[in-house]
Amino acid sequence: MIVVDKRALSSIIISLLLSSVSSVANAQTVMPLAPNSTVIQLTPGGHFSEPSVAVDPDEPAHVCVVYQTVAAAAYSTDAGEHWKPAPGAAVDGYRVSGDVSVVYDNAGHAIMSCIAFDKLGTADYWGHGATRNGIFVKRSLDGGKTWDAGSIAVDSQATKPGIPFEDKPYIVADNTHGPFEGYLYIGWTEWRLAESVILFSRSTDDGVTWSKPVDISDVHGLPRDDNGGVEGFDGTVSPDGVLHVVWTNGNEIVYKSSSDGGKTFIHEREIIATAPAFFKPSDVYRANGFPQIASDGNG
């Protein structure tokens, strides 16, 4: 279930509270609300919705939320007072699309990244026995109200023995007014039979085309999702146009940056030595501990 705190939205800070039904305890996690807040429920309860939210930098009253179990979207043009569903966000031709994230560019376009697949691999070893899958982008040129009919493949795998599984993408937009304004970046995990790596792609034409994915992880992880993998890519662009990215490597958090629009990155370095990737609260299936990174207006 996704709920939005309107009081927070009024100051362009959005609170998305995620509740899910536990597969073990069959109990619903309830998050406390902020004092004097108003809740708007966007989805039915009991769903693993993994929401992502973006605010148009030039029109702060325009807000877009994307969520799953198959990729879906909603938008608001009044800073969260009212919401409407936006059809067409799912990737056609696949059984499942999810792991969604969304950004706005400086032209007011909403761009969403997600995975799409027919079947996962074995439990926690997603690259073992996976079928066709990939990382895809959907574009909305009207700020999230409607989505392009087609999807754009950033990286896709046809069904064949031993294919990797592409997982957990995160999209970043350069909303500065520097030399790389409008560039889009996506990082994600590729699960292979014997290891996991962080792949990266960039777009310089508003998400229409994407560069060939490259491995930016200096240290590769184990091939299993629940222990020792490299995953949880997140990024931000500082006012000087530098792209800063982080992810987990086992129980560590590592950092890289690029000052040339994603062409090259500095050597990976550890910034937090002990940071478990997953937690298992008593009444939910699991909660991830993936890192997030942000830059202030001073860089």
Helix and strand arrangement:
Elements: E1 2-5, H1 6-10, E2 16-18, E3 39-41, E4 52-55, E5 63-67, E6 72-76, E7 84-86, E8 96-104, E9 110-117, E10 133-140, E11 152-157, E12 165-173, E13 184-191, E14 196-203, E15 214-215, E16 230-237, E17 243-249, E18 252-258, E19 269-272, E20 278-279, E21 287-288
Antiparallel strand pairs: 1-2, 1-3, 4-5, 5-6, 6-7, 8-9, 9-10, 10-11, 12-13, 13-14, 14-15, 16-17, 17-18, 18-19, 20-21
Question: TL;DR of this structure?
Answer:
By secondary structure, the chain is mainly β.
Number of domains: 1
- Report helical residue fraction: under 10%
The residue-averaged pLDDT reads 87
Order of helices and strands: EHEEEEEEEEEEEEEEEEEEEE
Structural class: mainly beta
Compute the gyration radius: what is it? 18 Å
User: What is the strand content?
Assistant: 35-45%
Q: Which CATH architecture would you pick? A: 6 Propeller
Strand order of the largest sheet: 4-5-6-7
**CATH topology description:** Neuraminidase
Shape: globular
Distance between the termini: 35 Å
CATH class: Mainly Beta
Q: How many β strands by DSSP?
A: 21
Low-confidence parts lasting 5 or more residues at pLDDT below 50?
1-27
Please give the largest β-sheet: 4 strands, antiparallel
Tell me the number of helical segments per DSSP (H or I, 4 or more residues long). Answer: 1
